[in-house]
Amino acid sequence: WYTRVGRLVTCNFWVTLSNAGTMTGTWAGIGGLPFTSKSVSNMSATGSISYFEGLANAWVLISSMEINTNTNFAYLYGRKSATAATSADLVPVTDIGNSTRIHGTITYIV
Questions:
Q1: Which of 15, 49, 56, 86 is the most exposed place for a label (fewest CB within 10 A)?
Q2: How far is the C-alpha of 76 from the C-alpha of 31, rounded, in Å?
Q3: Is 27:58 a contact under the CB 8 Å cutoff?
């Protein structure tokens, strides 16, 4: 579900897979957001993941998302290991399993 106030859109989602099927692309994310993000250079929006389970490979944390300009797709970011790092990793589509569940929220400008 989503709420739009003027140009600001907030989407909340629960994704539950029963079969991952065939996914295209390299990086996993949430597609089909209700509006295309505003096309402005050097702008992106972020969101947070509140719950995840059932990934095909072990992840310590799936914590955030990023939507770039002029798109309706948000990439998933997290940490695959507990070692100290300076940045988050993109989640590859190969790590999405047949029973993956992801809940989260993203806010962006249209």
A1: 86
A2: 11
A3: no
Q: How many residues does the chain have?
A: 110
Helix (H, G, I), strand (E, B) or coil at 86: coil
For 15, residues 6+ apart whose C-beta sits below 8 A from its C-beta are 30, 100, 101, 102, 103
Q: Does residue 20 contact residue 98 with C-beta atoms inside 8 Å?
A: yes
- Please give the structure tokens belonging to residue 26: 């390299």
Contact 34, 73 (CB under 8 A): no
- 5-54 residue pLDDT tens: 999 999 999 999 888 877 788 999 999 999 999 987 777 788 999 999 99
Give 20-77 as a DSSP string.
-----SSB-EE---SSPPP--TT--EEEEEEEEE--SS--SEEEEEEE-TT-S-EEEE
